[in-house]
């Protein structure tokens, strides 16, 4: 089957997809489908391989990659910024209280203000390392699941959405 070293994908011009298996366990232990793209060479020996997986597969794939490349020590620790209520949330809280709506009361009898805070995608503990490096191979694995890396628009109107959203830049000569 296909591998990350597929000839047409090595240049970085084409995206590839394959089914990923645990090391030395083919064909029994499939981790799942992945898509990948090689970052084009910039003149140096170092290359980057970007791999996209479904969030349900992320922990298994990440654990397998860390084991294969012997990555153990964290390069950096991700510490999220403390979440503070926004001005809009404070205004909403004041409006709801002024309308006299009933609030849920907790065991202490105090009025609880339910504010749902979601940090990240739920697939990584906020205090878990983002990058791991292998002292033996020099390979670094980075978890970029908390960042927007690309958009995928699918469906019959995807092209229309793109053409209505993107406009060609005007040429400027100096």
From TrEMBL:
Question: InterPro entries, per this entry?
Answer: Pop1 (IPR039182)
Q: Which segments of the protein form a coiled coil according to its record? A: none
Annotated GO biological process: tRNA 5'-leader removal
Can you cite an annotated GO cellular component?
ribonuclease MRP complex
The portions of this protein that span the membrane are none
Specify the protein name: POP1 protein
- Source organism of this protein record: Indicator maculatus
